[in-house]
Amino acid sequence: MTPDCTDYCRTSCDGIQQLPACHRGGGTSHYTNSVPQPASSKPDAKMPKLRPSQRLVLAIVPPIAALLIRLLGHTLRYEDRAEPGVTLGYHIPGPVVFAFWHRSLLACAHLFRDQGITILISSSFDGDLITRTTELLGFHVVRGSSTRGGAAGLRAMQQAYAEGRRCAFTADGPRGPVFVAKPGAALLANSVAGHTADGQPTGTWVGCFYALPDRAWQLRSWDRFLIPKPFSRVVVTWPAHVPAGEVTTASVQAALDRAVQMAEDS
């Protein structure tokens, strides 16, 4: 068990445990309500034309994958670990910015399903598969990455934030290296919220989390992707948020590293 962490437990079938008042956003608000309207998001380049075989895969695989994720997810038991004073992400309304590691994507796909969370997915065929699957799970998807289509992806995430959505980044996606944060979450956080007297954005805070199954298959992929085994326990950790004004790629990296440490110590 992680020392000095507030422990909340819930199962995917029974819903979210009600938090005490001190964890429901009481006291001073740290959430940003006003944001600038970003420029409209248009693709930087057209996606390559799909082959007939790819179209067939896109028609068949996502519905099956989404169904399997829901079936698997209902066998999992999620347990939250939060550092003192940290509100669990489920209970924070948008607009907010969160980051997590790519390898925990499957466990998170079920955990955060049907909440309309906005996620950034790469402009590739693999991204097409993930997009269609996650949309069937109730996510709102924008396309782009830190490489191909990055500017358009950031503009689309800015728009999602302006619309009051919760925005989430796989910090080391789409191609790694594993456990190395890219600047997407920090760029978004520092480009939104209110403005100073000279017109510069004040920025918002960033939350980080990590989901670690106690029993899982680990793929031989760049991210060491985890597929939780049925009926396993998944620990979800929530370290202290990175405050507005202190958000950098390095500070997001440190918070994500802390989330991993908390999970491994559980």
Number of strands: 11
Principal-axis shape: globular
Radius of gyration: 18 Å
* Biggest pleated-sheet summary: 5 strands, parallel
For the terminal residues, how far apart are their CA atoms? 4 Å
Q: List the secondary-structure elements in sequence, H or E.
A: EHEEHEHEHEHEEEEEH
Give the averaged pLDDT, no decimals: 83
Poorly predicted runs of 5 or more residues: 1-45
User: What is the total number of structural domains?
Assistant: 1
Strand arrangement across the biggest beta sheet: 5-4-6-3-7
Number of separate helices: 6
How does the helix and strand content classify structurally? alpha/beta
Oligomer: single chain
Strand content: 15-25%
Q: How helix-rich are the residues, as a percent range? A: 25-40%
Describe the structure.
The longest helix has 22 residues, at 52-73. It is globular and about 55 Å long. The chain has helices at 52-73, 105-111, 125-136, 150-162, 184-189, 249-264, and strands spanning 6-9, 77-82, 96-100, 118-121, 140-143, 166-170, 207-208, 210-213, 216-218, 226-228, 233-238. With 266 residues, it is α/β, with parallel strands linked by helices. 29% of the residues lie in helices and 17% in strands. The chain has one domain (6-13, 50-264). Helix 1 packs across helix 2 and helix 1 (52-73) packs across helix 3 (125-136). Strands 5-4-6-3-7 form a five-stranded parallel beta sheet, sandwiched between helices. Strands 1-2-11-8 form a four-stranded mixed beta sheet. The protein has a two-stranded antiparallel ribbon with strand order 9-10.
